Amino acid sequence: MWKKRYSKSEVDFREDIPNYSDEQLKEVLKLRDHYQPEAAQLAIQEALKRGIIHSEQDLFSEEFRCEEIEFSLFPKIKRDRNRIKIRRSIARSLVICSVLPVVFGLIEMKTGNRWEGASILLFGLLWLFCSAQLIKMFHVLFIRSLMAGTILGASYIFYRLISSQTYIFMDFFLVLVLAGLIFYGLIFMLKNART
Question: What is the pTM of this model?
Answer without folding.
Answer: 0.66
